[in-house]
Description:
The chain is an all-beta fold.
Amino acid sequence: xxxxxxxxxxxxxxxxxxxxxxxxxxxxxxxxxxxxxxxxxxxxxxxxxxxxxxxxxxxxxxxxxxxxxxxxxxxxxxxxxxxxxxxxxxxxxxxxxxxxxxxxxxxxxxxxxxxxxxxxxxxxxxxxxxxxxxxxxxxxxxxxxxxxxxxxxxxxxxxxxxxxxxxxxxxxxxxxxxxxxxxxxxxxxxxxxxxxxxxxxxxxxxxxxxxxxxxxxxxxxxxxxxxxxxxxxxxxxxxxxxxxxxxxxxxxxxxxxxxxxxxxxxxxxxxxxxxxxxxxxxxxxxxxxxxxxxxxxxxxxxxxxxxxxxxxxxxxxxxxxxxxxxxxxxxxxxx
Length: 335
């Protein structure tokens, strides 16, 4: 983009609440509860405030055209913002979340002049020389999209299996692209070395990255350039461009790829998952529970002798996926 055109573009692309545009310029503001969003040119993806309740919102990116508006990235997954909170690209070029209670979160603290919601779901910030200075793809939460790469030492964290406002908060499972070239799933809260890992370690020079190929929607570990050392299953629905695709670390510790037909699809269809058996996931039932599964899909947790569920009356996403605790001492009895 020519620098001579920048002031004019900043003027015509200035965003106000309730409008949709593929770009944001300095001075632009979104307000939680006002339904304003930054759309990609196709409208497939949106950036803005994603509601998790009537009054709480996440700053996020989501699939915008399908009925299930699936969240793929968030800047404040552990701290939902209240109605009236704002996202601003300040006059100084910082991308800032201002909570309604006065708390401030710097999403990007450098100097940007323009933000662009790309058609692949990546939010770019650019400076006055049109250099990319920040992008959401470099800071993933629980999901990868085609065109995205999980670099060496980068991580995905599952969502919580809580219900309500904390549904999207960071959970207890992690996918890590290790320095040694192995991709590892672990229950990191429990100092778990891993319940699944790719079989190939890094040999020789060059970093290993997890690549989600945009052209064929396949995931693989790549060393250097065009040197594939591990591939996931290849039964991706075709034509690839007729589907939305994502790979997500779910709240029960499974890394899964999904596809959703853009026009005829009613829901996400799983392409593959690892591990194949849900009870292989370490600590899926917590430190004091053990796992059963009759169908290799749903999980039924039971507590070890001497322990009880934290809240047996609370329904969960799967049959009885809850952690266990020691029971409270009985009171009111003669000692």
